[in-house]
Amino acid sequence: MSADPKALYQELILDHNRKPRNYGELDHPSHHAEGVNPLCGDHIHIALDLQGDTVERIAFHGESCAICKASASMMTVAVKGKSASDAKALIHEFVDMATGRIDAKDGPHIGRLAVFSGISELPMRVKCAILPWHTLQAAFNAEPSTTTEAEADPMHAPLGDA
Amino acid sequence: MNTTLAHPTAAPAPNVTTTPAFDVARIRADFPILKLTVAGKPLVYLDNAASSQMPQPVIDRLLRYQTTEHANIHRAVHYLSEAATSAYEAARVKLQRFINAREAREVIFTSGTTDGINLVMHGWGRKNIKAGDEIILTVLEHHSNIVPWQMLALEKGASLRVVPINDAGELLLDEYEALFNERTRLVCVGHVSNALGSVNPVKKMINFAHARGVPVLVDGAQAAPHLALDVQALDCDFYAFSGHKMCGPTGIGILYGRAALLEAMQPFKGGGDMIHTVTFEKTTYNIIPHKFEAGTPPIAAAIGLGAAVDYLSGIGMAAIAAHEHALLRHATEQLAALPGVRLMGTARDKAAVLSFAVQGIHPHDVGTLLNTQGVAVRTGHHCAQPLMARLGVVATSRASFAFYNTRSDVDALVAGIRSLQKVFA
Asked: Which of B41, B114, B362 to mutate to test the interface with A (most CBs of A within 10 A)?
């Protein structure tokens, strides 16, 4: 579409949308949560199995736009095999990057997820990218459901789509 | 008026024929925003069902009011107050003529369609709807013509009955008629569906309801910018619409109501201007329409809406409808021919609204990628979630046209869809 490296629909994102990794359900997960974006009806379910402090298995499924699905897919790849504390640190870094509070280079755990840094310039799409991350946080917190409109949402702002 | 900007009727037509030429290039020149570029591309604005753009004569009228006429209305005897009052009431008369109401006092200025419907809900509904009563709506309604009635039904113990549609997005009149019974108290129906563009058979629906003594409220938000309106011919009891969808400002709209109904209604908001006399023991209310216009109204916006009505009438609603129909035909043919594109809403009688799905691509991705081509469409549930549920989708992409759109706007939309399909291929 555009030569702009910050352009959102890059091959990496399109590839994760076409072939989402860790897509499906887990038997007997230790943690799981459902995340909903009421503005568009998108929803995503994340299940993970925490062995000690390590994310041994993780999977997601749901219906969403390409940005949300690719974000979820890349998130599962990024946190699989990591410690819960590293995963939680990454959640904060990703959300801070997506909302424009930090640059991708200032997030030590961000890595390939920097491909989402351009989302901060599209305020109406930020929630698409961060929904999986909120949902993962909710799963860690043993909250069975969350939404992008929850009080905890750092982007909590009235977006007109009622 | 001392303006150098051309009003579409200001100059004589180049050649006099029985059908006046529709010069879209000249009309576009009236809209400064259409000269914008977005993402380095000329703006292709196809989100008119959400809000339309404002032509220079309306912008100029707002500027002139604020520059030389502003004061509060219906208050003082000084020059500016009289100038503002006279311009505000003149706008009411323009609106009265635009919808062919019997009297100007049947036109109440509101903040928009939602406000007008809520006014009827509070002023008429709370007095006339009782436990066990039924209100008929349709599955095509915008949330603003659902939620107020749901709130009222909850408060009163009344219930909502919903007219279904066929797969083309047309209301099923037999089903509508079958919903009536001795408990039916009100029908609320949109004139034109915002999500699908279906033009509903409101005249037939009103006739049927009136034969059973049931009043009808029409949500005209999507009709007023596109069709010639005649509330007397329609014989509706209430008709509400918004200014910003018809080249006027935001924050202004009107509710038309039959004078006898309005007179019998309770005011919705209390305050200044809506009273006749006030003591701490008792307040008597002003006459209509002032009874329903408590507080200082958006005076400039009302005058701007009057100017918008002049602008539209100058072009002619019949000419507007004809141009938009030609655009709709072209756009429907072009999109229907695109592989992987499904049109939603194929009613025989349609306004220039095209809801569509692109196979395998979420509407929000469609909207973001079309934006990179300078094409503005709406994506989402269009404030019509019950309709989305009926269609079996959570969202659609929607291109909605105005009289200033062109065939090349349609072609840009088609090129944009082809281009995003390649991205996702």
From this structure: B362
Q: What class is the B31-46+316-424 domain? A: alpha beta
| ipTM score assigned to the predicted complex | 0.83
Sign of torsion, CA B248 B253 B255 B259?
negative
Domain coordinates in residue numbering, chain B: 31-46+316-424, 61-313
Instruction: Tell me the pLDDT of chain A (162 aa) as tens digits.
Output: 343 534 789 999 999 999 999 999 999 999 999 999 887 778 999 999 999 999 999 999 999 999 999 999 999 999 999 999 999 999 999 999 999 999 988 888 899 999 999 999 888 889 999 999 999 999 999 888 887 765 545 444 333 333
Strands of B396-400's sheet in order across: B341-344, B353-358, B396-400, B378-380
- Asked if A9's CB is within 8 angstroms of B365's CB, the reply is yes
Residue B297: asked if its preceding bond is cis (omega within 30°), the reply is no
pTM of the model: 0.90
Residues of A with CB under 8 A from a CB of B: 1-2, 7-9, 14, 17, 39-42, 63-67, 122, 125, 128, 161-162
Q: What is the rounded distance in angstroms from the CA atom of residue B411 to the CA atom of residue B425?
A: 21
Q: Does residue B383 have an active-site annotation?
A: yes
In a domain, A153, yes or no: no
Q: Which residues of A touch B369 (CB under 8 A)?
A: 1, 9
| Domains: count for chain A | 1
Q: What CATH code is carried by the domain that includes residue A45?
A: 3.90.1010.10
CB contact under 8 A, B423 and A67: no
Looking at CA atoms only, how far is residue A154 from chain B in angstroms? 21
A33 located within any domain: yes
From the CA of A25, how many Å to the nearest CA of chain B?
22
- Helices (DSSP H) in A8-125: which residue ranges? 11-18, 66-79, 84-98
Residue A20: give the domain boundaries: 11-143
